[in-house]
Amino acid sequence: MEVLRETLIFTVALMLIVILSVFCVGSVYAISQPRYLEYIHLKPSLITIYKGDLIVYDLSVRDFVSVDISSGLVKSLGISIEPVKVAVSEDRMFFISHTSSKLYMYFHGKLIEIGLASNPNDIEVYDGLLAVSLPDLDVIEIYDVETLEKKYFFEVDLAYGLGKISIYGRNFWAVSSDGYTLIKIDLESGARSSIKLDERVMVIKAFKEGVIVATEKDKIQKISSNMIIEKKWQLRNGSTIDIGLYVIEDGRRIIYTARSRWVIGEIEEEVYEVYVNGRIFGDVLSSDRLWFIDTTNMRIGWVWLSRPPRITEFEIKPAGEGSFKALARVFDPDNDLKNVTLIVTVKSKIPGLPGDERYYPMDKLGEENLYAASFNLKSNEEVEVNVVAYDLAENMGVSEKIPLVYKEEKTKTANVTKTEEQPAIELTDIYMIASSLLLLIPIIIAILAIRIRRKTKKKHLKKQK
Fold this sequence. Notes:
Layout: E1 3-15, E2 21-23, E3 35-36, E4 44-50, E5 53-58, E6 63-67, E7 74-76, E8 85-89, E9 92-96, E10 102-107, E11 110-115, E12 122-126, E13 129-134, E14 139-144, E15 150-155, E16 165-168, E17 171-175, E18 181-186, E19 192-196, E20 201-207, E21 210-215, E22 219-224, E23 229-234, E24 243-248, E25 253-258, E26 263-268, E27 270-275, E28 280-285, E29 289-294, E30 299-304, E31 310-320, E32 323-331, E33 337-346, E34 356-361, E35 363-364, E36 370-376, E37 381-391, E38 396-398, E39 402-417, H1 427-464
Antiparallel strand pairs: 1-39, 2-31, 3-30, 4-5, 5-6, 6-7, 8-9, 9-10, 10-11, 12-13, 13-14, 14-15, 16-17, 17-18, 18-19, 20-21, 21-22, 22-23, 24-25, 25-26, 26-27, 28-29, 29-30, 31-32, 32-36, 33-34, 33-37, 35-36, 37-38, 37-39
């Protein structure tokens, strides 16, 4: 029987989860997280955008100030009238005050007053037209913003309050004084149509295909131009007590500010909300973001209209000998993706200390929205792996973390008895045997030398006797 020693090396990757693919992972927001201006100190009560600058009514000085967003430079406009509503059309800024029966226009640094027949209740600008609500007289007046010529005049049973009128294209919308009836007027023909809802209307906002309506029982309704309720969304309690409504992308996206609930939301089939950590007092939509006033902390913030990227799939595949390949599918709804990064966090051996983080840029593969990166682990390393994606607005999409342990185990085995065919002796075996014998030669010589010395010593003692 011959005993052979064989060394078998096993590489084992132990996954702490059953499945290495994650679908639709991470927190999903249809609107980005809020950011804040840190360099200005005002007491804001109203904001708008005018010629690219942020215009703020500052209660501390009771004046409009212009804020350069890039530099933070604040400049007084010298307008001391306290407004309740502001509307902007390119190089003209209009505003009204409930204490005055005048319409004010700021143009080329000058304040121009336009007399009205009654105190205005609301104003709205769209595509060169300015609509003015005069509910005391049940009258709507619509002006050309450049010439200030009165183009349209309608007698309408109007409701009081901001957000009860809206204009888009050739359609003018208004809420009737009963609070439930919605009226649409064709500006060219004067034709009217209406629909009575089962809830009181709080705010309306017109768009190309119809109008968006917020009602008193915290619903958002989409109503078509032919007065059909196409869809309803239920918001949380208290959302429409004080709400701002905005419509973009021809009605595909609805942005709202539930001011009393301290949230900004978006409706794109589903409802998504972000918390702003303060009471919202005023807000305005610009070309790339929604600005808002946080009166709790007396600051101005914004949320980007660009939506964060989403990691919809994330998978890790072992590639052998401590090598792994990560695959992630990233969807960016606004097509402004900046980069995708794989993060491997090594668990610290010392409790309480943060682990080491390794970053790997992920490259886009030929397949649509698929990104890949490879990484290596040492034996017994315990890690967590996830993906982070950024867009050009610095919105971030984050995947869930996949825990992973890599181990390399060496085991020595096998007493194998060979009774039949004996293996041929190879040169390496002869070399090993010869090497072992060479090691024995000095020992044999030493033993022989000792024995010779002993024999010589015994002969010498016999001669002395």
